[in-house]
Amino acid sequence: MSGNFKGDAREPFKGNIKWVGLYNPAAETGVLYMLEPPLDKAVHFFWDRAYDRKLYFRGRLGDIKISKKNNRFEYLVKIVGFESQAVDWKEKASSIAGFSQGG
């Protein structure tokens, strides 16, 4: 999914987002945020406010009532910078993230 932020304090991008890419065309650089490995039940969302945008992550640990004592739950977040021309940045980001375009 892709689109523009409106600053309306809503959550325009929400769901099982596999990776997030941000790109600066003037500098021809971008950054990727991804979970490794991607989680099927994780929920990400952006909170879109007029003065900032925040990315939230909500992991799903299953039924914690049946979890055993001292169990550990870990998520690995990977942040990767990249360079690309503006016309190709989405393909480059998708390739780095390990998905085909739109995946």
Topology:
Blueprint: E1 14-15, E2 19-24, E3 29-35, E4 43-48, E5 53-58, E6 77-83, H1 89-97
Antiparallel strand pairs: 1-4, 2-3, 3-6, 4-5
How would you describe this protein?
The protein has 103 residues and is mainly beta. The chain has one domain. Helices cover 9% and strands 33% of the residues. The strands form 2 sheets. A 3-stranded antiparallel β-sheet has the order 1-4-5, with no helix packed on it. Strand 2 and strand 3 form a beta hairpin. The longest helix has 9 residues.
H/E element order: EEEEEEH
The amount of beta strand, in percent, is: 25-35%
Name the overall outline.
globular
Major beta sheet, strand line-up = 1-4-5
Taking pLDDT < 50 over at least 5 consecutive residues as the criterion, the unreliable ranges are: none
Helix content: under 10%
Largest sheet: 3 strands, antiparallel
Number of strands: 6
- Overall number of structural domains: 1
Task: Give a short overview.
With 103 residues, the protein is mainly beta.
Keywords:
single chain, 103 residues, mainly beta, three-stranded antiparallel beta sheet, 6 strands, 9% helix, 33% strand, globular
